[in-house]
Fold this protein.
Amino acid sequence: MGSKAKNLGLIGLGMAAGVAATFQLSAHAQKAIESPLPLDELRQLADVYGLIKTDYVEPVEDKKLLSEAISGMVASLDPHSTYLDQKAFREMKEAVAGKFVGVGVEVASEDGYVKIVAPIEDTPAHKAGIKAGDLITRIDNVPVRNMSLDEAIKRMRGKAGSKVTLTIARRGEDRPWVVPVQRQEIVVQSVKAKMVEPGYAWLRVSQFQENTVDELAKKAKALYAENPEIKGLVLDLRNDPGGLLPGAIGVSAAFLPQADQLIVSTKGQLADSNQQFYGRREYYSQRGADPLAGLPAGLKTVPMVVLVNGGSASASEIVAGALQDYKRAIVMGSQTFGKGSVQTLRQLSPDTAVKLTTARYYTPKGRPIQAVGIVPDMRVDETAEGDALAVLRVREADLQRHLAGEAEKTPAAKDQKEALEAQQRAVAQLKDRKPLDYGSKDDFQLAQAINHFKGQPVMLAKSEPEDEKPAAPKALPGAETKPPEIKVPAKK
């Protein structure tokens, strides 16, 4: 098996409190450091270490000092790079299967606080009313200001059935609110599916896990068994925070007519980071029978709409970008999160590792995803009244120290008073609104997708925000502008 298949990478949205994280153990040797070590700075680090050991008010263990030094060094790079100690490393490995104990939120660090990127549906946090954009200011009454993201996550974890009290600050509200959340073992159902109405199917991927491709194939076969003449299929990736790269490759390959089409490319500092990933089995499944074997032929040609929003990130953006580049589907909704960086797990010891950003992702046509995301072909608001969440949503470009995107545009300065008023209006609109039940009869965007299939009018968003206008794509050198001609290597 080639090295590309072995190094499939990590594309989770960041460390999550009770969310299945994704990783890849790298067996590649570390790149030799070409520049000389900064001796003066290293001496200064040693001096500070010595001062703490001799002068601090109480003794501090060597292991703690060094572990925190490593953690701070890695965390200073970008929001998605982090040092994993024994506990965090163990929890990350356990979480890949999609089973974990927690509250069910994707989080990122923002201005010293913990910001909610997205609550996972059907989890304690989601049921408690926690929303994207909320700030966690205290955990069990302990302030999180300037607390490391890793430490905040540790405090939110615990035994199933135990409670954690979160203090939440929400834009537009005068006072924070305190919400007790009961931790529980959460098994995320990766794929849901049903017939919305005769002839029209809905497939939702809530997160890309180890078994996502198998689940999708199983659900797709069941849909066609129920209705062989499907006239339109909606692939719902809204608020899907990402996950494993093989899942994104397999889901894309399930719908593309050619088996060997390019799905995504990566580009980084290391030669091994410059790779191309195709819709071949070696890239999406390395165990058992091919999960995509025997798929209904109609799945390759059925008219498709992919639903996305600001919570669609990472693996979701890879799928949406690939299907959009090959004109296999219409992408509908709002601009995606913009998480287009690769995180690779470099193991330091048997039970510690560094999750390090090593490359950027590009669509088959060479469009960068990082800090830009995928701009929909048809921009449709979340409800008929508009998208009140738009001004509250957090995107990759909003995160401090985010890795700059090649096509990222500097947003125009906004009047603070006007922005605050917009946020207050949004909060007022959302105050009494129940969380949207994706796939239900009240799902406005799904209804617009069905209208598109039927040739009926689609209610588009009233205006196009400036930051959602697509920039001229800066293609990855050598990127393909048409489906590639694949040469299958000889077996080794």
